[in-house]
Amino acid sequence: HKISISLAKINDKDALMKLAQQAHNESVFADMPFSAVKFSAFYDKIINKKAICLVARINDEIVGFIYATLGSYFIADSRPIATVSVIYIKKQIRDTLIGGKVAVRLVKSAKKFAKDHGVSHLLFHVTSGISIANTDRFFRKIGAKTLGGNYAFKL
Prior knowledge:
With 155 residues, the protein is α+β, with helices and mostly antiparallel strands. It is built from five helices and five strands; from the N terminus they run βααβββααβα.
């Protein structure tokens, strides 16, 4: 299996929307209806370089993605900080060797992209509620430092 990672392109929109909908349907937010309109607005940010989306492909099929934004730390003058809001690997491969390889390649590509753009910190917000223990184990194994946790109240 040849894994390739690239920035999302205009013609990736439909395939990426399907994958984003799968991510949504698995997440803690699945009780809210998926919005193609909001997805399109999010995709416009990617195409207009206001946000970053790295996609992982196997044989031209998109099997995973990372969505991130660049910003700054709110009370300091600093280099940019990248915040990853979503890292998603297709459910059918997530717990397989190839799924693990896709995840590693996506994170390595995000780190490279961030370094190339002068980013000081690459933060991963884990808030989907999907495979929390596996996600924690994965990030610890690849050397990420735990900064705290994500907590939520459903209101």
